[in-house]
Amino acid sequence: MRSTSSTIRTHRAARTAAAVVVGALALSLTACGASDDKNSDGDKNSGGTTPGAATVTLPKLNGRSLEVAAVWTGGEQANFKKVLAEFEKRTGAKVTFVPAQDPIVNFLGSKIAGGQPPDVALLPQPGAVKQAVQKKWAKPLGAEARAQITKNYSQGWQDIGKVDGTQYAAYYKAANKSLIWYNAQVFENAGAKEPARWADLLKVAQNVYDSGVTPFSVGGADGWTLTDWFENVYLSQAGPDKYDQLAQHKIKWTDPSVKDALTTLAQIWAKKNYLAGGPDGALQTEFPVSVTQTFTGGAQPKAGMVFEGDFAQVNIGETKAKVGTDAKVFPFPAVGAQAPVVSGGDAAVVLKDSPAAQALVTFLASPDAATIQARLGGYLSPNKAVPLSAYPNPVQQKMAKALIAAGDDFRFDMSDQAPQAFGGTPGKGEWKDLQDFLKNPADVAGTQAKLEKDAAAAYGNGS
């Protein structure tokens, strides 16, 4: 899961969001069960939507067939198919899920060249949305979809679905990518407490290591997990203004602020014994395994902590660990003055302009669709009309509440704002450069040079 336009760069500093997230997640994260955010018929904390109630009118589409493409696999794909089943039930249309490969723009390009584009695609990067518009693949959203977006989304989430002022995308899924999950039994055995600052995280890592457990599981085979590590360190250490400038390539990757962030990352990445399997093992570990191996093996898992977003709950659910009891979470610690808040998301885009395709995106922009997937877990929606009670446990309810309360005060995933050749292609650009850095964290200057060369080529402003 990874996940813009110039509007993102006008967002206010992330302080409010950081405070909200830190405050919400610092509360006691208890086992799944009844929440203090009660919400059946009139939750004062919800958007007033009764779970399961139809709030959007959809046309009858009997006999129509649709294809929707996304890179989701496993639990994410299975849960999304349940949402599509509800659309089928309400409209009479037949929807087929088309598994896409990364980078999805390349996948769609081959489908379009072959004359078989899907009707709708879920794009995990704003840069991909912009590319789809530039290639004239994406179609503007219709009035019904725009009405749902205006009604249910904050201005910031509306704006990142626009290109040159036109609404092309509806953000169906959001992610809080500033979280570290930990094995509660490992922390208890190590006498470790949830850290609030980077220096505290380093102390916790040493405590976990001294207790006989490797501190971190890193899914380095998926380069996007490494860009997320960098972005959280950089946002907190360099600040939101520098973050925006680097996201636009208005400053170079050879800037001293990048050196500082890479040097900070090396405080963990350079300690081979801190990484499950060492750097070589991390580079062979895909994201889902990085999560599951943290929560299997009882009191002796392969690692005590794993960094990634709220969506890690889907993978935790594949183990016997219970979120809130066995698997707990804390906000990414502050490196600088403020803790970072990095968001990502997946946006629905119409590729074949038809009443059926527009109806599907309208449905995905409504609280009806998001409420279904929220109940299944491992999912957050930026749709503010989704009731908190739809989320299946107090941990996720607090995450959802923090996301909505943050409003426009967040920073979108930097690599997802970049041209896909730099920020979203396996084996190339930032993904590959940071994988090389994980292998050799001593080469800060060389990594900066490679990052700048690849960024300049992708942004088309230098060599």
UniProtKB/TrEMBL annotation:
Give the UniProt keywords, A-Z: Signal, Transport
Q: What is this protein called?
A: ABC transporter substrate-binding protein
Give the range the annotation lists for the signal sequence: 1-33
Compositionally biased region (Basic and acidic residues): 35-44
InterPro entries, per this entry? Answer: Bact_solute-bd_prot1
Map out region (Disordered) in residue numbers: 35-56
Organism, scientific name:
Streptomyces gibsoniae
Give the UniProt family note: Belongs to the bacterial solute-binding protein 1 family.
Q: Does the keyword Transport apply?
A: yes
PROSITE patterns per the UniProt record, alphabetical: PROKAR_LIPOPROTEIN
